[in-house]
Amino acid sequence: MYKLQLFFLFMVISLMSHAQLNNYDLYLPANTNASDNKYTSQIYYNSHLNSNGLTNGFLNTLNKSGYISDELKNDQYEQLNGHVLSSHNMIAGADFWINSQDEDKFSYYFGFDHQQILDSKIDADIIGLLFYGNKKYAGKNLNIDDTHLYSTYFNRMKVGGGIDFGDGDTKHTISGALSIILGQNYEELTIHKSDFYTQQEGEYIDLSIQADIELADTSWANIWTINGIGSSIDLSYSLIKENNYHLALSIKNLGIINWRNASFSGSADTSLRFQGIQNDDDQDQTIPDNFSFDNLRNIVFKDAREEAFTKMLPMDIHITGGKYFSNSKFYAGVSTVFFPSLHRSYIAEVFFTWNHKDKFHITPIVAYNSLEQLTAGLAIGVNISKSISIRAGSSYLTSSFNSQAPAAQGGFVSFIFIK
What we know:
This protein is mainly β. Helix content is 11%, strand content 54%.
């Protein structure tokens, strides 16, 4: 009787399981496409995980498939209030720039990346159902409204170019890349309004729901699976004046994916009664013996369509700028990434870099995001040789190791080779 909680479990756990570096160092920019460089390449990884309600300790246990004890559930549930916002952006890939070394100072670009983007706004009562089942709510009516679950991941194969121009120490760079996208997964569920009532003695469950759903594949596909095809463009502009200042603007993931394999979409505006495992009343719904997500979604979304659909990518806009001091020995700047379609809509950083003889630089960072999280961290850059550099850092050092704090963790690492 109480197993209908599994319907929410499959939907939420599947979604709970970016900021890409440009061809310049964000925390100490330099013109890596200078005429005496033949090519620049990098491999990178960047991740942000944030939540205003789910804690580091709970999410770490969940992601590691660890045992979620009653104590952990109780501690987590006590911190929930209203809607819980959570977001995870991960990007990993490689970039390769080839300098034409002619008077036009044109550079050719090739690259690829893999992105995972998860974003959710969950009514706290759903998490209560997951933790304790609906027996705890017998005789009560739960209003589960304004809930949105979104997950996608995909690969991009990119080709493009850029051009440098300017006079004296002032250099402008305009670049762009066109991507072919191979999509692996897409899941989106929006619950506009829902009432969930468990009869006092557990004899039946009433569910009324207004919701929309779109899925490309209900399984967690591997990186080589192709369930969608699309395209996108990245555009960027930067201005750098040597030993003076730097400004940059970029737009990424401006594109679409057509999801065609195992696609499923539908809307529900209905009331259902689930009454017992066996039921002779055709007007009521029996709880199915098979509690798979596929089976349960077909009960709620009766008139769903199994046909291809096209969705926009979650675009991001990155703005950064800063000022050099003491002949580039110090650099102070700000960086903000906007995610217009996500619940965590922006991440902003203020940083100050000390550059030691162009061999080593260290950057304290203070960050703030739209989930009202204020964190601090550190980035380090090491030039191993004239050609090889390593960059790594995190703006979450003050929050990552606090298991009771709302989740705020992540960081980046990149390896850069300039010839």
